[in-house]
Design brief:
- The chain is mostly helical.
- It has a single domain (4-170), classed as Up-down Bundle (Four Helix Bundle (Hemerythrin (Met), subunit A)), CATH 1.20.120.450.
- It is 62% helix and 6% strand.
- The protein is built from six helices and two strands; from the N terminus they run ααααββαα.
- It has helices spanning 4-25, 30-34, 44-62, 79-99, 123-147, 157-170; strands spanning 108-112, 118-122.
- It has a two-stranded antiparallel ribbon with strand order 1-2.
- Helix 3 runs parallel beside helix 4 (79-99) and helix 3 packs antiparallel against helix 5.
- It is globular.
Length: 172
C-alpha cells in the first residue's frame, strides 16, 4: 500500500518525465509528429494522445465520473495544442490531489471502463497504474522518436531523483 506522499512522488515523476518527452516531440516536423509508424497507437501524436487521455480518464474516475470515450488524436493538430490540453489536465489533477485526505489513498474507487464494465479498486493501486501506464507508453514514444531521427531523452525515475536531490542541495 502506498501513502499519499508516495502517490504524490509518482505523479510528480510522471509529469516531469512526460514533459521531457513532450519537449523532444516538439522538435519534430508536423508531418513526423502525426505520422503513423505502426505502433500500438500509431505514432508519436497517437501515443501521446493515448497517454494524456488515460490520465484524463483516470482523473475523472477518481472524481466519480466514468467517461465513455477516450480522446481523438485528430483534436490535436500539433504538439502545442496537445501540450496545452495536457497542462490543464495536470493542473486539475494537482488541485484534486492537494485536496485528497491521507485516508482517501487507501479507499475504494468504483468506476466503469470505456466499454461499461464495472470495477472497484483502492485509489493507491489505480494511481500506481496511472504512473506505470505512462512509463510504458513513454518508452514507446522514445522508440518512435528514435525512428524519426529525433534526439533521445532519458526519463528514468533515478534521473528524476538525482535532479531533485541536486536542486535541494543547491538551494535557492
Amino acid at each position: 500500500m502506498l501513502t499519499k506522499e508516495d502517490l504524490g512522488r509518482l505523479l510528480e515523476y510522471t509529469v516531469w518525465a512526460n514533459h521531457r518527452v513532450m519537449r523532444v516531440a516538439a522538435t519534430l516536423a508536423p508531418d513526423d509528429f502525426k505520422r503513423d509508424l505502426g505502433s500500438s497507437h500509431g505514432g508519436v501524436r497517437g501515443t501521446l494522445t493515448h497517454m494524456m487521455g488515460a490520465e484524463w480518464i483516470w482523473l475523472e474516475r477518481f472524481k466519480g465520473v466514468s467517461p465513455t470515450r477516450g480522446l481523438d488524436e485528430g483534436e490535436f493538430p500539433d504538439v502545442v495544442v496537445l501540450r496545452d490540453r495536457w497542462t490543464l489536465i495536470e493542473q486539475h489533477r494537482a488541485d484534486w490531489f492537494r485536496s485528497l485526505r491521507e485516508q482517501d489513498a487507501t479507499g475504494p474507487v468504483a468506476f466503469r471502463t470505456l466499454a461499461g464494465a464495472a470495477f472497484e479498486a483502492p485509489l493507491w493501486e489505480l494511481l500506481q497504474h496511472v504512473a506505470n501506464h505512462a512509463s510504458y507508453h513513454r518508452g514507446q514514444v522514445v522508440t518512435l522518436l528514435r525512428q524519426l531521427g529525433a534526439r533521445t531523452v532519458i526519463t528514468d525515475m533515478l534521473l528524476w531523483d538525482r535532479e531533485r536531490r541536486a536542486a535541494v542541495e543547491e538551494g535557492p
